Amino acid sequence: MKSRSTTKAVAKKKASGGFLETAKTIVYAVLIALVVRTVAYEPFNIPSGSMIPTLLVGDYLFVSKFSYGYSRYSLPFGLPLFSGRVMFHSPQRGDVAVFKLPTDTSTDYIKRIVGLPGDHIQVRHGQLYINDQLVARRPSDTCRDDEDSPIPVRGYIESLPRGAGKPPVEHCILKIGDDGPLDNTPVYEVPPGHYFGMGDNRDNSQDSRVLSVVGYIPAENLVGRAQFIFFSTDGSARLWEFWRWPFAVRYGRLFHPVH
Known about the structure:
By secondary structure, the protein is α+β, with helices and mostly antiparallel strands. 15% of the residues lie in helices and 31% in strands. The chain contains two helices and 15 strands. The chain has helices at 4-39, 245-248, and strands at 41-45, 59-64, 96-101, 104-115, 120-124, 127-130, 133-134, 137-139, 154-160, 169-175, 188-189, 194-198, 217-218, 222-232, 256-257. Strands 1, 2, 3, 4, 12, 13, 14 and 15 form an eight-stranded antiparallel beta sheet that branches.
């Protein structure tokens, strides 16, 4: 027969072994999550309405980190382990991209890329010009503000050029009017290695048109391209109101691709 002391020792050993296995499992899970977040996909949420109607406040989306290659901002906390980008693929006009704000790299921004290095960008009477060519837009009833804005807005489908032989990228934009503060701008000449981003909610977006805050987006600051919405809530349920959660989910937006 085993003594009580021997039985207790075996029990303690089993408990210790179980704790170590649990700890190792947690560590492995965290490491796998960090690797996936660094090289594949990272989740982001939308806190403002600058990208309405494409993205709504309360949308949660995955951003592909590999779309534009990797920079220090692909790493957790933006660790400065290297400079520039590796495996770089340039964004295309029409991409919805997440980037680090050039004036405050602790802040993430999301905008649509409309200007590439060397482009001349200007807004005249509310309409976008790229390299002195008017970007076509047409009125659309399907492009609307689902957030019940108190200010009347008009929806348009804008067609961004993508180069010779390529079809334009069509996407929705919203406009309050064509005589707002950012509806008549100087010509912006996008520097080499930089990009120009604008919000789809054109009259409610602080974007590259505001040089003192956003300005031109360095390639190194790119985080990734928005891929799809995996969750969306209208904000009507507070965190502790779990019984209201099912009614706050925008089910029609779940797994919706970002275009």
